[in-house]
Amino acid sequence: MAAFLGLFRRDLSLALRQGGDTGLVIGFFVLAVVLFPFGVGPEPEVLRRIGAGTIWVAALLAALLSLDRLFEADYQDGELDLLALSSLPLELAVLAKCAAHWVATGLPLALTSPFLALLVDLDPGAIATLFASLLIGTPALSLIGSVAAALSLGARRQGVVLSLLVLPLYIPPLIFGAGAVEASAAGNGARAYLLILGAVTLAALALCPWASAAALRQALE
Amino acid sequence: MINWLANPARFMRLSAKAVPWCSWTAVLVLAVGLFWSLMVAPPDYQQGDTVRIMYVHVPAAWMALSVYLFVAVASAVALVWRHPLAEVAARAAAPIGAAFTFVCLATGSLWGRPMWGTWWVWDARLTSVLILFFLYLGYIALANAFDDPSRGGRAAAVLALVGVVNLPIIKFSVDWWNTLHQPASVMRIGGPRIDISMLAPLLIMALGFTLLFAVLLMVRMRTALNERRAMALRLNAGAIPAPRPGREPVVSANTVVP
After folding, report:
1. Is pLDDT above 80 for B242?
2. Which residue, B227, B67, B63, is CA-closest to B139?
3. DSSP states along A49-118
4. How many residue pairs from chains A and B have C-beta atoms closer than 8 A?
């Protein structure tokens, strides 16, 4: 447990002290959402209609942007080899790194989303649902992303391969996350969507560390 | 069986004999199946002759799923037992499966236009098959993304196992969600809900597609093994030190040969 917390704290302070990571992700997120009114026109009805989906897609892309740093630096400087040799199971090490990644990117994304929701004119109920859906869904993004990040370690053109691998796997959280906001904006309860989104996150929590650890082991061989 | 087949030389000998037989059988079965389904089988009472798209669409969809399952099982065998042929088989099967998935999507789109009035709907079955197609593409991209081919094979194997999650979603999408795509009518509890005059050519087409897959798989595996052998030969040839310049008389264009 101490090793788990230590790894979590180390990754988090690295992400926060380097500063760029979280700021870049948020900056990209805001810019991507702000681009849409230029593309589709500033009519509030149109923006309200596509707002939730836009914000969710932008959040996916922002999360994708930060994935290559999840293991890459540790892979390059040999830290990952030490982690694999340490007494902490690699599955738990992956979990600690994902948790740190989520606190450094997913959580700030969720916290920023209400302000972006104002820009696309969502009503207060939908904003609350959007915040909740991102809070529930972003851990799944970090966890699923860790599998793809581990698989593509050391690949040529890693960024392209990574996005090709991870975007299809991001579709379920996207469907239920954006669906929740849509349902809430239409006046139907968002509960069912949020529950399924929670199930997706829990399934990712249970399965992804194993897959990532397997991928890391074969990368280190 | 698995261990007995683990010898690439034995596989090359067996497949050299099997490929011509399987090819001719596949051609024959596909010819019979196509003739039966396009000429003999009755038109649907509602859909008319459009229903004949089914005889390509449905077997392609079955193949798309079963080839993915094949890739996943072969990947698991390759990861667990380091079976030398399993990895070759998985990598050889993936592009074939991607092609079947593409055929399934394309014929489905052509069928959807007259029947549903649209080329594409974002329905659960269609979306999950599209994801399957992207998984195939991701698998192929990852398998070829590394300088060390065995590393690419192992990474892709893990990805194939992760993607298995999608298979039950595709299979049961028509039962879980209320979709435009019709629910299962052949492989269902209580027997197929399709008349024998249509079921028979459908099953023959399915058999033909399976044989076609077997042939293409063997040909691709043989190519991959030959390629590997050629690479090994080239490396061996390169390992013999080349004569250093200067040691031997350099013959150039203006050397006068006595």
Report:
1. no
2. B67
3. HHHHHHHHHHHHHHHHHHHTTTTHHHHHTTHHHHHHHSSS-HHHHHHHHHHHHIIIIIHHHHHHHHHHHH
4. 60
Q: What distance in Å separates residue B142's CA from the closest CA in chain A?
A: 6
Q: Measured between CB atoms, which of B127, B151, B162 is closest to A211? A: B162
Q: Do B131 and A171 touch (CB under 8 A)?
A: yes
CB of A164 less than 8 A from some CB of B? yes
Average pLDDT of chain B is 82
CA distance B60 to B103: 6
pLDDT, tens digit, 9 for 90 and up, residues A38-74: 888 888 888 888 888 899 999 999 988 888 888 888 8
Query: Who has greater pLDDT, A50 or B241?
Result: A50
Q: Which two tokens stand for residue B176?
A: 């879980």
Kindly state the DSSP code that residue B85 receives in the 8-state scheme: H
Q: How many helices (H) and strands (E) does chain A have?
A: 11, 0
Identity of residue A90: L
> With contacts defined as CB-CB under 8 Å, which chain A residues touch B165?
207
- Chain A hits for B138, Cβ within 8 Å: 161, 164-165, 168
Q: Is A48 exposed, middle or buried (CB count within 10 Å of its CB: 0-12, 13-18, 19+)?
A: middle
List, for residues B84-120, the tens digit of each pLDDT value. Answer: 788 899 999 999 999 999 999 999 888 888 888 878 8
Out of B151, B152, B159, name the one closest to residue A165 (CB): B159
Alpha-carbon distance B88 to B4, whole Å?
16
What letter would DSSP give residue A39? H
